[in-house]
Write a structure and sequence with these properties.
The chain is 33% helix and 13% strand. By secondary structure, it is α/β, with parallel strands linked by helices. It has a seven-stranded parallel sheet with strand order 3-2-1-4-5-6-7, sandwiched between helices. Bound molecules: nicotinamide-adenine-dinucleotide.
């Protein structure tokens, strides 16, 4: 069963507790004059990243096979493409350079999930998942690199997952594809470290997006997260924006986890002798 559902891009996450209902205020201008590509920018983490980069002053090329529900045409353009097609990544980079005259940031975010018993995995399912989760990432980086090297600067963030750092039940293909993103990015980072181009990885935990909307038993998932909740897409967008920014100027080849504490645990159970845990926040 595919975890990427056929749902409208207008999906809105569930309500947040009022304590966390603070609107983010962009650091106006820090990306003024910068140009970014965000793949998978029509939905979820990608859409939040587009908004965040625009708030910070960047012009953004949204690349997605779907059109976003809305976007501010002044700050962003849409390049509608299926990134599993071999030439799509090169074309998206050419579009960004043609429309905006340069390319500073690439966020390889488009991806899909899958849930399968390993004995049921078909070649078709495996290759379809790898085509978007890692092949498209490689092609995007390969196409962007000459421009970034030529200008002597650039930053790439590849969106992997905590599922790239360990195993999940029934998610072998996803785990393998995201682990490939992590280690591909490390190699790329050292190969272009002296060209002024930084490459980093974000590993989100459970985020409220259309991809995870169909997961049943939400409460059980939240209980397994030390912070007791999933995250909103903008909480990952801010991590991505940080890695793209000069605040991360000495970071390359880093794998930044944003998972509410999931990977900080060994997985061993909590002693009943400890104080009772505060209730889940959602
Ligand atoms: N949501 C989570 O809990 C979570 C956790 C860890 C990692 N991630 C990763 O974050 C990334 C974004 O996930 P999301 O939850 O925002 O998902 P999402 O389904 O909301 O958005 C994914 C976007 O990618 C686009 N896309 C998928 N295949 C494409 C293709 N072949 N060509 C062009 N565009 C394509 C989709 O149209 C969609 O707009 C993915 O790489 C995912 O693996 C998500």
């Amino acid at each position: 069963m595919a975890l990427t559902p056929d749902v409208p891009t207008t999906f809105r996450p569930s309500q947040e507790p009022s304590a966390r209902k603070q609107e983010y205020r962009g650091m106006t201008g820090r990306f003024e004059g910068r140009v970014a590509i965000v793949t998978g920018g029509a939905s979820g983490i990608g859409a939040a990243t587009v908004n965040r980069l625009k708030e910070d002053g960047a012009r953004v090329l949204i690349v997605d096979r779907n059109a976003p529900a809305s976007w501010d045409e002044e700050g962003a353009c849409l390049f509608q493409a299926d990134l599993t097609l071999p030439r799509a990544a090169a074309e998206m980079v050419a579009q960004a350079v043609e429309r905006f005259g340069r390319l500073d940031f690439l966020v390889n975010n488009a991806g899909m999930g899958a849930l399968n018993d390993p004995s049921d995995e078909t070649d078709e399912q495996w290759f379809r998942l790898f085509a978007i989760n890692i092949d498209a990432v490689m092609r995007g980086c390969r196409a962007a690199l000459p421009h970034m090297r030529a200008q002597g600067s650039g930053a790439i963030v590849n969106v992997a997952s905590i599922s790239g750092l360990g195993g999940d039940y029934g998610m072998a293909a996803y785990n393998a594809s995201k682990a490939a993103v992590v280690n591909y990015s490390r190699s790329l980072a050292i190969d272009c470290a002296r060209d002024g181009v930084r490459v980093n990885v974000v590993c989100p935990g459970l985020i409220d997006t259309p991809m995870t909307a169909p997961i049943p038993g939400r409460e059980r998932w939240h209980a397994a997260i030390p912070m007791g909740r999933s995250a909103q897409p903008r909480e990952i967008a801010s991590t991505i924006a940080f890695l793209l920014s000069e605040d991360a100027s000495f970071m390359t080849g880093s794998v930044l986890v944003a998972d509410g504490g999931v990977t900080a645990t060994t997985g061993q159970p909590r002693s009943p002798n400890l104080r009772p845990l505060p209730p889940l926040t959602r």
